[in-house]
Amino acid sequence: MRHETVDLIFNAAIEVFAESGFDQAKMDDIARAAGVAKGTIYYHFRSKEELFVGLMNEGVQKLIDRARQYLKLHKSPTDQLLALVENQIHFYVQNGKLAKLLLNEAFGTKTRQVQFRRKIGEYLQLIEEVMIEGNRLGEFQIKHVPETASAIFGAASVVVLQKLYSMEEVDPARIERDIPPMVETVRRMVLCGIKDSTYC
Amino acid sequence: MRHETVDLIFNAAIEVFAESGFDQAKMDDIARAAGVAKGTIYYHFRSKEELFVGLMNEGVQKLIDRARQYLKLHKSPTDQLLALVENQIHFYVQNGKLAKLLLNEAFGTKTRQVQFRRKIGEYLQLIEEVMIEGNRLGEFQIKHVPETASAIFGAASVVVLQKLYSMEEVDPARIERDIPPMVETVRRMVLCGIKDSTYC
Amino acid sequence: MRHETVDLIFNAAIEVFAESGFDQAKMDDIARAAGVAKGTIYYHFRSKEELFVGLMNEGVQKLIDRARQYLKLHKSPTDQLLALVENQIHFYVQNGKLAKLLLNEAFGTKTRQVQFRRKIGEYLQLIEEVMIEGNRLGEFQIKHVPETASAIFGAASVVVLQKLYSMEEVDPARIERDIPPMVETVRRMVLCGIKDSTYC
Amino acid sequence: MRHETVDLIFNAAIEVFAESGFDQAKMDDIARAAGVAKGTIYYHFRSKEELFVGLMNEGVQKLIDRARQYLKLHKSPTDQLLALVENQIHFYVQNGKLAKLLLNEAFGTKTRQVQFRRKIGEYLQLIEEVMIEGNRLGEFQIKHVPETASAIFGAASVVVLQKLYSMEEVDPARIERDIPPMVETVRRMVLCGIKDSTYC
DNA sequence: CATGAATGAGAGTTCATTCAT
DNA sequence: GATGAATGAACTCTCATTCAT
């Protein structure tokens, strides 16, 4: 089992990083939120960057794990792809802070960004695998698999974030009601993007 | 005509901000890149934040202006929507640095982010207007206009950025060849998302 | 006649310096208050310091000139001394901002402070001359002339400033009513300080 | 016991602030004088202003504490008042730097000045209490207690500062010899100001 | 005489990181 | 394992002064 203190730090860090972004997040705030001394963080993590990377990997891993669960519930690639979209949107709504970091910190040339993108790549891989299987079974005719995966990922991401940040204050009940339109929107896009070859 | 020095600063700032993000960008670097003294920037802009907001507004305005040009070339909402997608992808490829900032700095609660999102909202508005007109003419059956606009915007954004940052080094010739698959991918998604109601 | 622009600058500078003190006063503010360009100030004055010294000299000179007028109205040294006190208090009330600078900028080792103190010394000289004449005529028995002059000057200064700054907002009517008690207070102190030798 | 480092900083700060005034004092200089890093000051004080206010409060508190000691040594209000004057002058001579700040930074509308004036008000209160008691016992006939307290405070302050800054260099032996005339001067003023009503 | 854009040295403040306890 | 006082490099922003027009 992971050390208890590390959990404390992780939980605090995800809040603070997501609230402020990597640069604006202060180790002081993380320490205070975790209820430990600042030195303690450095006892467990070499640097702010290492803490961040560990955190992001864990966050994306959760998304991946949930996605894997969803995949098992469906047989056909079509259903699986739709399930992935639904999962991603639900996950974003439930982890709005992480979602923001996913877009904010994913692009760039810094080490942490490259590492983070690699982890996101694992998730995109999952989508691509379903697509390839669908192509193989003749269920899809996707010509540009990586592009299509990115597009779906981006559509789902921005739909949720735009919704989250267009509200004055995040109202859990309200956002819950907003999920179905978002899911349906992306779902419809996905379905066309993969089905036939001579534009819908 | 705008003052020459301000142009110098603007051009330098877009480079530096895009390279490093808002927080990591240093006013010293912007000044050096612009070939002016640091104080000169502060003579023309009240703060780093004001410079950034001015810059982003100008950048998004360029995207909007180009989009308006494209819209004039087409009559039917369908063609107009596809033109908007194509325009956005081309614009991103040509202004990769701005594109990155568009996602990186758009979400958050800080003043500059709220202002920036408002400007992006102007662009989304453009998409939505085409959608509403298409709905009116019976060409589209879009149930959730804002969500669909966000999804298209997000799909086009992430497709390009993922491509740009998956390459070791940005190779202009290579990226030029990559445009058509990206355009086609999003175009297909768009076409389904708007055409008929009982999934494609 | 002094150049018109110089007057503009002088009048603006006294306001700004008195409002903010030497260090906090900005040449930009003075220029704006004077309605001239910043460069214009430097056309007429070598530096901020030179402007300040010129200004202070002029301010104290006004106090001295008024004092000289008052002195002419009275014959006996006793009446003259009391007139000086009354003059100083009235002058302070009417030029509260200058009064503040008089204490704020008078003590220190910087060139401008030394020069300023020298000018204030001219005013103290005036007091001392009356004292010496009073001593000669047997009207006073002042043992320590410079100390006594300083004490009177200090008493009058602090009484007014303490009053001015103890009020939430400076109310001209209110402060006008407060003059007599201040004058009487210092006047009584003065009278004893100079009359007999075995404590009053 | 207060933290050792804070003492280091306090002692250095009083030197530097008094030497240069609030605005000209540099945090770098204070840090160097204290033998700590600049960041260390900010670990203990939120800002330059907070450091200054803390310092001034402590300085005036010392004056107040000493004054309270002096008051205990005397019974009659007359003796007590004279003791206060003597104490103030001695204190100023021994703490010339603080004395200068007392006048330089006491008047103005900035937060630190208002707070500082409030602390000085505590000292003036002490004087006023003695005056009121003297009035009650019939020993004094002071009509304007606050004005008289201010006047005495101002007289004592300016007498010392004028003396300190009229010397080319501060010579401890010389200034020691100058104390009696200063004390006597103010003492005589005080005695009249409070004794009888029909001018001395 | 007058202007105001440009300058750059220098100020206060922040914060990731270290290390003696 | 854990602490938190101490650090100092680096940052944004200020403003007196200059000078070409």
TrEMBL record, chains A, B, C, D:
It comes from the Bacteria. Transmembrane segments: none annotated. GO terms for molecular function: DNA-binding transcription factor activity; transcription cis-regulatory region binding. The keyword Transcription regulation applies. Residues 3-63 form the HTH tetR-type domain. One of its GO terms (biological process) is negative regulation of DNA-templated transcription. It holds the Pfam family TetR_C_24. Keywords: DNA-binding, Transcription, Transcription regulation. This is Transcriptional regulator, TetR family.
